[in-house]
Write a structure and sequence with these properties.
Elements: E1 9-13, H1 17-29, E2 35-39, H2 42-49, E3 63-66, H3 75-84, E4 93-97, H4 102-110, E5 115-118, H5 123-140
Parallel strand pairs: 1-2, 1-3, 3-4, 4-5
Helix pairs in contact: 1-5, 2-3
Length: 146
Amino acid sequence: MSHGTKPIDVLLVEDDPGDVLMTREAFEDHKVTNRLSVVSDGVSALAFLRKEGEHADAPTPDLILLDLNLPRMDGREVLAELKADDVLRQIPVVVLTTSEAEEDVVRSYSLHANAYVTKPVDFDRFIDVVRQIDDFFVSVVRLPGR
């Protein structure tokens, strides 16, 4: 993270505990001071974003890392709901998924995802990808309200 940048709030929507752990490790190894919140399904993601129920005090994320293959409500449905919401649509969404299917790429962008990244299976490469996403959104991109 470059000097002088404020930490950002990142929401990780991921149901695979291994991928959650690797993402946390990428943030820690990279000495990222960004705050990482995690929910494990699409219904919880929308509750978090809308500050409903147990998520009433949740921070509004500056960036969402969204898996597509989620229980209860998949990432495509979450993305559609998010981008249809006048308040939430401005939050950048990076689809971070194992799917390499062209139809998932096309559909994600048609639903206004800001980026589509296929998760590497190799641990070191996964860590590197998360770091690059973080660097880009913290050091390069200007986020709304920052």
